[in-house]
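Support request from a user on the community tier.

User writes: "When I paste my structure tokens into the form, the page sometimes reloads and wipes my input. The last time it worked, I copied everything first. Here is what I submitted, just in case something in the input itself triggers the reload:"
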């Protein structure tokens, strides 16, 4: 497979060599388990069945899941094995299924879903750094997009993720996601069954970027597109970028929150307790898989 799945467009044959993400053709997964800590319309009361794929096409310097995003820890899975796991998650009573940083394995995921498609909302949890052309393969398959919106300036995109085009790409991606899903729809349990929910993680020293991103959401995306404002940043992964070596202060959080409220954006505000390393799941251990 000559891989141009993501905006890095490496053009390498992943059966022979690796590109930016360092992944071969074999699907690698670091965790398949119930997950209770996503936003209420994703996790509900009983949880989302979360499939954490190994590797990442963005690899942020501060990633809280560095063992899987930078170091590609995980277990090999076939599409048949993934399909069987999806069935088990459904039998366990999950309220949705989440595919997390899944883009490098999109063809294998489509194969798995052709073998077994759970009767649950399927969520595509993404860094937002996606090619619209690639996402079109998911139209009519994925019910809910859960993209990040991370950086506004090309300087921060370059510094944090070697992606100076991050905002240019993600702004087109989010519009494509909203086009595919339309306005949010919720079921009687409050679970989003269709729609796009945008996540923004506030970064220390960079609240100015947050304000610009939220204003862009308000001005560009369909009214009613919810935003999840996250304050859980902890300087993980040995990050050495000046300003990113500490947590977000209460004053910084309030500045961004107040802007979101002033814009009247619907969505979710994260509790301060969420900035706790105990919320990072255990990856790549026997107990990480259902
Ligand atoms: S998925 Fe990996 S190999 Fe393919 S284009 Fe993206 S970074 Fe390159």
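"...and here is what came back when it finally went through:"
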């Amino acid at each position: 497979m000559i891989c141009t799945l993501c905006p890095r467009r490496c053009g390498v044959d992943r059966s022979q060599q690796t590109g930016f993400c360092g992944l071969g053709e074999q699907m690698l997964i670091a965790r398949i388990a119930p997950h209770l800590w996503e936003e209420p319309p994703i996790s509900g009361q009983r949880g989302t069945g979360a499939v954490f794929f190994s590797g990442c096409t963005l690899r942020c310097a501060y990633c809280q899941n560095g063992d899987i995003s930078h170091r590609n820890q995980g277990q090999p899975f076939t599409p048949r094995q993934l399909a069987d796991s999806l069935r088990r998650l459904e039998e366990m009573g999950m309220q949705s299924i989440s595919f997390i940083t899944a883009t490098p394995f999109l063809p294998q995921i489509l194969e798995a879903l052709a073998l077994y498609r759970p009767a649950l909302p399927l969520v595509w949890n993404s860094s937002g750094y996606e090619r619209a052309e690639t996402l079109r393969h998911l139209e009519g398959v994925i019910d809910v997009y859960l993209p990040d919106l991370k950086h506004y300036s090309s300087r921060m995109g370059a510094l944090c993720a070697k992606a100076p085009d991050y905002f240019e790409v993600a702004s087109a991606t989010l519009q494509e996601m909203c086009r595919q899903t339309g306005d949010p729809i919720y079921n009687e349990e409050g679970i989003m069954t269709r729609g796009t929910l945008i996540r923004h993680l506030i970064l220390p020293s960079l609240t100015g970027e947050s304000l610009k991103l939220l204003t862009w959401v308000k001005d560009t995306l369909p009214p009613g597109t919810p935003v999840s404002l996250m304050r859980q940043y902890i300087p993980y992964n040995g990050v050495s970028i000046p300003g990113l070596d500490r947590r977000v202060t209460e004053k910084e959080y309030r500045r961004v929150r107040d802007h979101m409220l002033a814009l009247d954006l619907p969505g979710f505000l994260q509790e301060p307790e969420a900035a706790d390393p105990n919320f990072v799941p255990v990856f790549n251990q026997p107990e990480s898989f259902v």
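Agent notes: The reload is a front-end session timeout and is unrelated to the input. The domain at 27-288 is CATH 3.20.20.70 (TIM Barrel). The first strand starts at residue 2 and ends at 3. Escalated to web team.
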